[in-house]
Amino acid sequence: MAAACLAGLPAVEWGWLAAPAHNIPSLRWRWLLPVALLVVAFHFTPFDTALNRAFFDASSRHPFRAPPLPANSALVLVDEQTMSAMSAQGVRWPFPRIVFAQLIAALQLAGAEKVVIDFTFFEESDAMQDQLLAAVAAGSPAVILARTTERAPVFWGPDFVRANAPLFAQPRTGLVEFPADSDGVARRYPLPGSLAAFGTNPPQADGLLRWHGGLEQLSARGVPVLSAAAFIDAGPPILERLASAAPDLDAPGIARALAAEPPLAGKMADAVRGKVVFVGANASGTFDVKPMPVGKIEPGVLIHWTAWTNLVAGGFITALAWPAVFGAALLAGGAVLWLGINRASLVAPLAAAVIATLLLLAGAWLLLSAGWFLAPATPLAATGLVLLGVVVENFWREQRRKREIQAMFGAYVDPGVVAQLVRNPEAIALRGERREATVFFSDLAGFTDLSEKLADQPERMVEVVNAYLEETSECLHRHGAYVDKYIGDAVMAVLGAPAPLPDHALAACRASLEAQAALAGINARYAAPIGVRLEVRIGLNTGDMIVGNLGSSRKKQYTVMGDAVNLASRLEGANKYFGTGILLGEETARRVQSTMVTRPLARLRVKGKAQAIEVHTLHGATGTLAAAENEFVTAYRAGYTACVEHRFAAALPALARALALRPDDASTQRWHADATTFVSTPPPPNWEPIVSLDSK
Prior knowledge:
Blueprint: H1 2-6, H2 23-43, H3 46-61, E1 73-78, H4 80-88, H5 97-109, E2 114-117, H6 127-139, E3 143-147, H7 158-163, E4 173-175, E5 188-190, E6 206-208, H8 215-220, E7 225-227, H9 229-233, H10 235-245, H11 251-260, H12 267-272, E8 276-281, E9 289-292, E10 295-299, H13 301-314, E11 318-319, H14 322-340, H15 347-369, E12 372-373, H16 377-409, H17 415-423, E13 433-445, H18 447-453, H19 458-478, E14 481-487, E15 490-495, H20 504-527, E16 535-551, E17 556-561, H21 563-578, E18 582-584, H22 586-592, E19 596-606, E20 613-621, H23 627-644, H24 648-661, H25 666-680, E21 690-693
Parallel strand pairs: 1-7, 1-8, 2-3, 2-8, 3-4, 11-12, 16-18, 19-21
Antiparallel strand pairs: 5-6, 9-10, 13-15, 13-16, 14-15, 16-17, 18-20, 19-20
Helix pairs in contact: 2-16, 5-6, 5-10, 6-11, 10-11, 14-15, 14-16, 15-16, 16-17, 19-20, 23-24, 23-25, 24-25
């Protein structure tokens, strides 16, 4: 029967779990392709741009490593202190041109290497002051003035430049324009002809600015950030001497006068001597503050100063092209897919997504300090969308698996066990595992006679079989069994799989006793009226076995296999030899000895096995037997034990008593006859009470 139970029997369809493995990947491509298209589409949306800008700004404010600072720079600002000092003199913004002439002359005499002026002088002013400012600026070789693509300072027209050609051997103006992004924040700087390039030929056209911080951070890092007030105050006497030396206020004359002036001394002069000085405005009324990545608003001159530092020290940041961005997206999405797919819990895919996100952000942050900008928004979108796809697929898989479990076990397992398996599908090792369980095999005795008498009533025959199977299955379900299969009138069940079951051996014994008792009702309703008596033969065995989903790619069944399973089948058949109803394997009997009344019959050696095991028959639960049956079991055990110990003369009285109580018991008859023979003709010293059955 064991072979028949393990092959060629009706099985439950497993759907996708039984389908070829390529079906699931093909399903996955159905959502991976739309996800890929969504990632590409997201890359070209404003959301991608906004997220990349936000990351760039945050990373610029908090870099992994601060970019190097050139040692020879300073910032001189028209700040609130300057505005207050000028206001005390009755001067309002915009300052007269003579004030800027004072500032430039003072910085030139303070020894600045370059003076980059971030002020535009496009409107005509007082003619004499314009002439003075033009002459001082042209006569100060360190000065670079601001211009736009369309306009130069109003006092530096072509005629002025031609007339003073020797003073303009090098470009003396730079473009002050820079493009802001759509959110108004300046992040990129065009270099050719710019105010930061000093008329040189920069190695690149433009680049993302590598920021050093706002004014507070720069001061903390040792960059001199000075008020223009002190330099403006030093200017009037200088201008008086210049005007006296060059009364025509011509540029060559001012240049000679400046060259003859003694250098300025003092702390302020020391702060700019030998340095490239960027001059701009920071006061609230000057309207020259700009939104920047390093702060809400900073003076516009900071952009030009930052671009100059990038040129001479740290280099601009290069934005990585789209292949790198989509490559990072592929790696991040692939990692989430690989680590998160086929997981029953959300923890694994979420953890994979979190790790991928952290690695992306950390990598982009580190790259930014190294001079490369990997825009992280598209890879992050890929991570999120793949995570969504993985979660949906895992959820779909889990729900479908639960439905398959419901369909697979619903008719064979108690509903409570099915609910437990649906809640925790991982409890079922469909690919196979070794587990300890108890196997139940049953068969009807007298079924052949019933079949013959109902040969012309097939509907009645099916009704009887179904009634028996229904009763037996209910007994098994009540005790947590999984009904593996029906083979005609035979039943195979497992206790301890698929759901773990404590005391599965005891549960199997209780289910067997109930199934045996339930047969009385079947006999009364169906068998007795036609003169037939049905009896059930049950074999139980406990041991390790392989449990899993077995079958072909088209059809699979959750079942068990192994020596313990085969022995249970043999025990069911051995009931015929011993004349018993329920036979227990040795391990099953050992486990229930404190709660069930069992009786050893012999050491049984089945076909194909060299080792014999002691088999027991089950009488009932302790405390439930009638007095006569208890007396019979006690007498039999005493006689059997004496036989096993080769005390045959002592065994005879006990076996005789047991035989008197139950004259039809085959095992008692056999051992009484053997003991009688062995008293006069003892067996060999190595004799054991072994029974060999060659049939299955």
